[in-house]
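Morning. Coffee machine broken again, so started the prediction first thing and wrote up yesterday's gels while waiting. Chain of 119 residues, entered below exactly as on the submission form.
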Amino acid sequence: MWKYFVFFNSVIIFLCWCIAVAVITPAYNHFVQYADLAMTLPWITKLAIDFKTLSIALPILWGLISWCIYRKYKNSEVVIQSRVLLYFFITTVCIGLIAIIFYLVGGIQPFLKIGASII
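Came back before lunch.
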């Protein structure tokens, strides 16, 4: 059960990362790659675009953290394992949602012209 749960948490964070990158890609394509106008992007969008390729480290590090937690708690009591699994699952979902929301806000802001000055 533990191995499946660790794998499931890694899959959840990977899917959240995929969604986050997919959300920021239209803003990257429109305002950076095929920029038609000179525009100052909001700081959240700049940060999200700058860390788009480096953000692959999130699922990789989360997989390593999952494996370390698995190794640490695999021989402990069932009650402790259940508690750790629940906390770890909640943490995984929260981090995934925070990443999606951050990239979503960064991807939407330039289209709504919030925090950007158009020259």
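The two ends are 57 Å apart (CA to CA). Going to sketch it on the whiteboard this afternoon.
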